Fold each of these.
Amino acid sequence: MTSSAPEPLPMAGPSADAAHDDGGHTEGNGRKRPKPGERRVQILQALATMLEQPGAERVTTAALAARLEVSEAALYRHFASKAQMFEGLIEFIEQAVFGLVNQLGEREPDAMARSRKLVTLLLQFGEKNPGMTRVMVGDALVFENERLQQRMNLFFDKIESALRQNLREAAVVAGATTPTVDAQADA
């Protein structure tokens, strides 16, 4: 497949030290404050990284704050709740995967090949983003707000719908007498 899955959330700066870089604004303790919006991205990156750890249990806001060397209150300046942090990860997943699915639809005229590549891109995304995979399969959402799992279920419903549409188109091209039924069974 020619398109590759995106890396985890884009880095806010060129190195881990950039987590405290704001172009020169420093706090009284000598630590630099990030530019507006950068801290939000850093929080999501740290959360995704923590979810990548094998055997990682539930990620707490205390552990997340400690990893970022900020207070829990600082997390809540950027997100109203932990659920909103997970929503940020889910938004990234949706934008990345559906962006690739749309590109695939534009570039691949053969519906059966498009179906194969759709499944491949989903698997590659999961392989390159193990923390996001835990969110996608619901492992990281077990003790969180139920609406997060519902949103991931909707994500997979959309993926299944795209796959079903591709398979139906392939069945029509192949001359199937019941393309909708065939696509439903194949999906």
Amino acid sequence: MGLKNNINLDEYLNKLILEEAGDGDKERLQAYIRSGFRDKELDKLMQQHWEGIQQKSIENNELYLQQLRSKIWTKISGRKEKQKQVIGWKTYLVRVAAILFIPLLISSVYLFWLLSQNNSMDVQSAMQQVYATPGSRVHFTLPDKSEVWLNSGSTLEYPVNFNTQKQRKVKLNGQGYFNVSHNEKHPFLVETGELNIKVLGTSFDVSNYANDRFVSSTLEEGSIALLDMQGKEVARLNPGQKSLLDRETHKLLVENVDTRLITSWKDGKLIFKNTPLNEVAKQMERWFNCSIHISPELLNSDILYTATIQDETLGEVLKMIEISTSVITKIENREVKIGHKK
């Protein structure tokens, strides 16, 4: 049973802001979230409240955001509100949740508000951040109607005044899939720290997890240009191609690939096709939010794995790997050990 059968969602959101939500309301919400929170009405209302933050005047925004911050960290999660941290003698940063259900959702959406010494807002410097918590995937829409999917442990930042920028710049840490709204006058730019991806309108995947050796870009539709940090074009991808930038050697490789193997995560699936064991383990760690340790003798083995993972649990997947390969697995809490069968 959805939450909408128990309470008016829009009314409930306003209750949270105005400190009128009771414990019973919060308990019903928590039970609903735990049982599977996917609800079109809920998604729509969260988006409406999020857009409402951006539409309010600057004077109202500050009060509204402070109320949201208090409700999230104090009223919903039950934790005491932390004092604002002073970042410098001229400025400080107030972190405010943009969606009211952040302690309960598998994704977190944050609004960063940069304030000057006299508490006036520097809109040009204000950034919004969307975060997919470990083990989760997040799907959302940018102000220009471009769609974004974030994989486990990934973060996307973009300016508050995104639609007024000459270039629609976003900064990615982790893995994201983009379906970009076409706009020739305002090119879309994904910044990764080592390489930038410039597009007009297209569908593509970018991965730049901090602990990965390679930064990859995979194109499904359209065309993307890869730019170095000086803005010079170093390569252009066609559909079905993937680029790999080696962070150690700084060499760039472009190859033809089956894009389904790379982008299926956004549709709730992991597809492996003759995939090395260490790569399988890395993707599973992010998918299931666990730690996987492979015994030294298997690190450079020629074990390859082929399977499609969708609704299976971690334990079920490990059993599948044992059946189809020469390994044995052991799981304790969220720690997995993979060794060679004796």
Amino acid sequence: MAINYTILSFPHLMLAIKQSDRKAFDELYGRTWKSLYKQAVNKLNNEDLAKDIIQDIFIDLWTKRESSNIDHIEHYLSRAVKFKVIDQFRKKDFHLKEIEEFVDILEDSEYADSKLLDNELRDIISTLADRLPQKRREIFKLKFEQELSTKEISDLLNISPKTVQNQTLNSISILKNIFQKILFIFFILFFGS
């Protein structure tokens, strides 16, 4: 007789998962991933990173299924998201400190021409902004190149100010992630052996 996983309680799902029941694991994932994802996105403001975190949590859960003794899986998963988010902020702070130090070195360099660096930086940001989806790109350029206010952009594009703010924050988050990767690569190339 086939088991109807949709009616199993969380404790029963966990018992089945401990016995390597993949269908029970899939049911647990299906029931909980959306709320966990929302929790992560609300804290990180980065959809891709939130997906990665949730994926990592479930991979860890499956990997350690036989040895884990989890009484309240919903609380466990929610706490796991919280701790993974904290880890991301720690990593982010670490990388930001490295980047800030690198920028300080460049600025202090006798060879650095600040006007040239500013122009280069603007060109890089503009090129990266061109990779954004059309609506985000348009809002980003109005905000940072034409220096329009949120209200002006909202009126011009006939969208809510909240949408302008959300799109701007999402754009900044995406560009910051890309820019950090580029700076890291540049740092390795510039200072590597």
Amino acid sequence: MQPGEASLYPEVLWAQRTDVIYLTINVSDITVKTLDIQADRIKFEGTQGDKTYAFDLELFDKLNPEASKKAVSARAIRLILAKAEDKEYWPRLQKDKKKPHFLKTDFDLWKDEDEEDEEPAGAAGGGMPDFGGMDFSSLGGMGGMGGMGGMGGGMPDLSSLAGMGGMGGMGDDDDEGSDGEDTEEMSAETKA
């Protein structure tokens, strides 16, 4: 886990299934110098402007580097690392029990072992999460969300509140000397 002396640690997110590890290196606009996926470790080094990011993780168990995939975008580097054996979930990503500060759980991709059995075959096609079959094309016209069932289409007419005035006795200096005459008028109006 020791990068070069002048290096920084990138934020690294991870999640897993019984057969793969999802690893995201969250650094935008990075130029990858080294991305070495070995059976028992991952070494990374990259530059962003004048900053160098690096890490070296010794893994809890073995990977199949040849079956692993990577995708580099302007926002992050995403890895789908094939486990050497399809068996139970790893209790942690790295061999060392002490978790490094830059390594975090990717809750967007995380599934518990018992939830993985519920996932339909092929739902994570191409290694991407399923998102529950949600049709994202229907979200384009959300706008102000007017007319949500039973809520009316727009804002209530607040002009009816304009004549209510302030609450007396709340530090309002205009009511000095008030002796309750307004109260009698108001109660007579409400009875009518």
